[in-house]
Amino acid sequence: MSRAAEFILRRRGGVGWHWTDVFTWFWLVSGFILMFGPALWLVNSSFKTPAALAEFPPTILPYVTAEAMVEGYEEPLQLFETTLPDGSVKVLAEVRRVGVVAQMVDPADPGEIVRVNIRDRKPLREVNFAVENYVQPFVNFDFFRYLTNSVFVTVMATIITLITNSMAAFALSKYNFRGRSAVMVLIVATLMVPLSVILVPLYSVISAMGLFNSLWGVILPTVATPTGVFMLRQYMLTIPDELIDAARMDKASEWQIYWRIILPLTAPALAVLAIFSVVWRWNDFLWPLIVLSRRDLYTLQVALNTYAGETNVQWHFLLAMTVVTMIPVVLVFVFLQRFITTGIAGSGLK
Amino acid sequence: MTRNASFAGKAGAALVAPVGWLARLFDPPLRALQRITGYGGMAVFFLAPNMLVFGIFVLFPLVLNIVYSTTGGTALFLGDRSFVGLAQYERLFDCSSYLDPKSCAEDLFWTAVWNTATFVVVQVVFMVVVALVTALVLNRELRARSFWRAVFFFPVLLSPVVVGLIWRWILQREGLLNLGLYEAGLTPVNWLVERGWAFTAAVGVSIWAHVGFYALILLAGLQAIPKDLYEAAEMDGTRPWRVFWRITLPLLAPNLLVVLVLVLIRAVQIFDEVYVLTGGGPGTATLYLTQYIYEIGFASFLRNPGLASAASILMAAVLVVFTLLQLGLARSNEARGKK
Amino acid sequence: MRMTSVVLGLAAGLLSSTAFAGDVRIMWYTDGVEGEVIKDLLARFSQDNPGINVILDDVGYKVVQEQLPVELEAGRGPDIARVTNLKTLADHWLDLTPHIADPTYWETNFGEQFDWMRPDGSKAITGFMTQLTLTGGFANKTLFEQAGVPLPGADATWDQWVEAAGKVQDSQQINAALVIDRSGHRISAPNVSYGANYIGADGAPAPVDEGVKTFAKKLVDWTAAGRMNKETWVSAAGTTYRPGIDDFINAQVAYYYSGSWQVAALSTKIGKNFDWVATGSPCGTSGCSGLPGGAALVGIKYTKNPAEVGKVMDYLASEAVVKEFTERTLFLPAHKAVAAGAIDFKTDDPNVKAALDVFVKAAGQLVPSANALPAWEWATPVYGVLVTRISQVMAGEMSIDDAFVRMDEDITALVAAAK
Question: For residue B188, what are the CA distances in angstroms to A23, B192, C230, C244?
Fold first, then answer.
């Protein structure tokens, strides 16, 4: 334990516990619980059956109540350890429960119904991971469809973003032409203009173009990111012009200069933009919500919101689908964490 | 950093390599084009795709928005809408007292404005403080610092919908938080149905989701502060509080300002996670501007696209002010860096 | 603008998904089990008509309520839609008369409701009611029994129902005594029972009257007292529809006011967990009225394949299909001949038949001001205003008297904006 504590906490300047050490420890531990706790609870809950989810107070492990077939009942009944009025304890099966009273039968003697207050009984439990929460959405709902749509939007938008943004950044960093600064001003001015500011006119543009209810209507308005152009341009400015001049001497075309010299040298910045574009597009919500009204076109985020807003929310499926939606982002995070964090610290990009 | 750069280089090269053959296909026609335009003229070609998309989907709608805000009716296409001049703005500003939304013709707009303002102020203060403390803690000589950094950063990448659902699941009537209260012998609270709690939840959840991002920027700023300043202070036996006030805070000020403005800009636009979490309720307690624009423009029986446009232009104006502020800050930081 | 649209349209023509000849897209929503049933029925149609590709889009009710109107405004949409907002959007419906085989058959069997779904004065046939509905209450009989509270009788008032359900709530420690869907349509039934009349002299909306005020006050008081489930109304803003059915299914409330379309959902989801009964509508001072309504299947004016739409509609409106649909969905039929004949509802749940009988009987209790609402073009907007403002009062943001003033202002603004 002391080893672990020492590992987590290197104290300030050697001997003794300064109050800042205590505070650091407190902040890190509570941060750990607050940050990871909710997500872990979500994952944990997603393995529970609807019955276990409806339980209050909830349990930590996904328990299910043991069941037994009882003569005279078609469905298996749940078993409870029941304290009877005479003080004896017996395993009874529940026929139905309404409010605080449960109607129970003895599996050995199913004829007679006993009415029991639910305070006087405890379910017989066993641990069971409800994997069907994950399987069902794929089999019975169009969850695979939503997943494909999200992947399509994310991949296409990222590819187009990388190509168009890098081309524009190349033009803006390596050429002198009239109106260059005007273009730069336009781009900088719209750096912080969110989609929500142009919802109505953009919707009419999309409609007029026939892109309503089309995944392209989701993709196209997002690809010309000013942030991307701006960041790539800053990066390209650091590439020496001599390289380009030399290539021109060798009769390289401008297009060749772009993809054989500039692009490879801009790779680190492109990678940062690619990662962010993936995360942005995967997480987009408001615009797809407006453009897509056909179920077979929903992206994951819109589908999740729809299921969450439905009559009789099926939390067991919803939680499992939320976990699946989290997975790609968590993977990106686990493998590229160091890279993303330095990318943000360097560019303030988000 | 070098390790990252080389990794990035490889990743980038891997991304670019497969398109090499495709790029080669484009070369002959583009060479022909270059012969006509000259090499300087190719700039237009490189700029064209991005600016075309940008023009159609960002600039054109921006201009169009102004036109929309001067029209009335429920029709979508401008041709079918009637010109009403500044009537939409008049409606938005028709108030006997701006401090009291109830006295306004469009009371929901002002409710949203004041809700957003309160949210922005409270959220910005807490966000900056929490991010700063986190950055300070992470800047200490910790073992496994990148692990701890990851702990705080992890929710940043989650989608707002997922964030909203995670917390809805915890804050609901029979959720984890009420389990805690129940176990502690306290009365469970209906977190998302009580006004004050719903607001607290909206602020708290948005901080939870984004604080890692700002902490990271501040951490980078902290690490740029020369170590010898601290060593000198330690030799003089300066107390930690004084070190913080005299060295850390002044030197971090530029980064703090940038973070402050970034938080501001994003707080004004708050929508997704709160929408999924509370739906704007209870009542209109967490109805914010973006949701107002969305609902009045698209979702309600009382649809009025012109009004939505007018409201969004007002919001854009606020954002432009903040953006200019941020650019000004960035420039002065740069100038200081050069000196 | 027109010119720009054309240019933009050409530019993006290649990218958009175009409708193929023979495609008929149906936007549908599901309350109970009708999604499954229509899927079966359409599968049979597709087998017999290989030339027509019917695509069923079973979306959430929210999409039909909120997104469809915006789509229609943009001159697009599905080819057929199942909607409840029939009158306000009537300009967008397709006149099926030239596309259906026998308009007289339609007129005879569905004619009574045609005015609900066409502009005033029009003679168009725009669609047919997939079901007639009537608002009404449901009580959890088992909870009442356990609490030893007798179910109030057929002429019990709203106050008596809430009092009885309140006793059940206290003795059974459930979440609330009653819940009403967050919907202006739902509360309009009790409003009317307390004497409200929304329709003014010239067909325009009248100012909110004593009837609305009386019931709205009761509703707010019940919410404040913890009798009415607060969450359903307060946890959303604006005009969002939110049903209270979850709490009733989970036995968290003793009384639920909704309507006949919920019967199938209640039967399948409650199963044998408890016994429930339909109660008709509780009484106010002016009657014990429910509110009639229903969902219609309508053709959309912007379809590219009106002939195919006509064929699909002819099939779905045919007597055999309507009969099967009715029997399997446990809906009240709108079709004259089907309604007159013997209907064999496909269920072994004894609660269902009793409930449907209650609704049929309650249909005789409608007061005239309720009967007029489905064909009134301002009904839906007025419902929206009622919900928005009353839930603000419940949330404690506004006094009830301010809310009444607001309602009038909102309605005036709506009428003005539409001109």
Answer: 30, 12, 15, 21
CA torsion A134-A138-A142-A143 (nearest 10°) is 50
Q: In chain C, what are the helix, strand and coil shares in percent, each to the nearest 5?
A: 50, 15, 35
Per-residue pLDDT band for A5 (boundaries 50, 70, 90) equals very low
Please choose, from the candidates C132, C88, C85, C89, the residue with its C-alpha nearest in 3D space to the C-alpha of residue C110. C132
Query: Do the chains contact at C8 and A100, CB–CB below 8 Å?
Result: no
With a CB cutoff of 8 Å and minimum separation 6, the contacts of C82 are C26, C27, C28, C29, C64, C130, C295, C296, C297
Arithmetic mean of pLDDT, A263-286: 87
Confidence of residue B9 (pLDDT cuts 50, 70, 90): low
Measure the CA–CA gap between B314 and C121, rounded to whole angstroms. 42
Per-residue tokens: C57: 């889009």
Distance between terminal CA atoms of chain A? 39
Q: Do C1 and B302 touch (CB under 8 A)?
A: no
Which chain C residue has its CA at the smallest distance from B303's CA? Answer: C70
Q: Whole-angstrom Cα distance, residue B227 to residue B239?
A: 16
Residues C302-356 pLDDT 10s: 999 999 999 999 999 999 999 999 999 999 888 988 888 888 888 888 889 899 9
DSSP A251-305: T--HHHIIIIIIHHHTHHHHHHHHHHHHHHHHH--HHHHHH--SGGG--HHHHHH
CA C12 from chain center: how many Å?
38
Distance, in Å, from the CA atom of C361 to the CA atom of C353, rounded to the nearest integer, reads: 12
What would the mean pLDDT of C240-256 be, rounded to a whole number? 89
CA distances (Å), origin B199, targets B131, B206, B279, C233, C399: 20, 11, 12, 17, 21
* pLDDT winner (highest mean) among A128-132, A137-141, B212-216: B212-216
Q: State the pLDDT confidence band at A316, using cuts at 50, 70 and 90.
A: confident
> Closest to A338 (Cβ–Cβ): which among B4, B51, B137?
B4
Nearest to B140 by CA among A7, A338, A20: A20
CA angle A324, A325, A327 (to 5 degrees): 65
Nearest to A24 by CA among A16, A12, A15: A12
The beta-carbon neighbor of C73 closest among B76, B283, B299 is B76
The B-side interface with C (CB below 8 A) comprises 56, 72-79, 102, 105, 107-108, 111, 173, 190, 192-193, 195, 278-287, 291, 295, 298-304
Reported as type and span, the H/E element at residue B127 is: helix B107-138
Are A58 and A43 in contact, with CB atoms under 8 Å apart? no
Structure tokens at C278: 């339909």
- Do residues B259 and B123 make contact, with C-beta atoms less than 8 angstroms apart? no
How close does chain B come to A111, measured CA to CA in Å?
A: 36
What tens digit of pLDDT does each residue of C249-268 get?
888 899 999 999 999 889 98
Residues paired with residue A89 on neighbouring β-strands, in sequence order: A83
Interchain contact, C15 vs A214, CB within 8 Å: yes
Q: How far apart are CA C208 and CA C364, in angstroms?
A: 26
Q: Does A99 reach chain C within 8 Å, measured CB to CB?
A: yes
Query: How far is B171 from B193, CA to CA, in rounded Å?
Result: 10
State both tokens at C369.
């001001």
Q: Does C5 lie at the interface with A, CB-CB under 8 angstroms?
A: yes
Q: What percent of chain C has pLDDT over 70?
A: 95
- Indicate which of C89, C234, C388 best probes the interface with B, i.e. most B CBs within 10 Å of its own CB: C234
- A186 reaches C (C-beta below 8 A): no
Output the pLDDT for position C88: 86
**Which tokens in the block code for residue B151?**
């702990």
**Interval B308-334 mean pLDDT:** 83
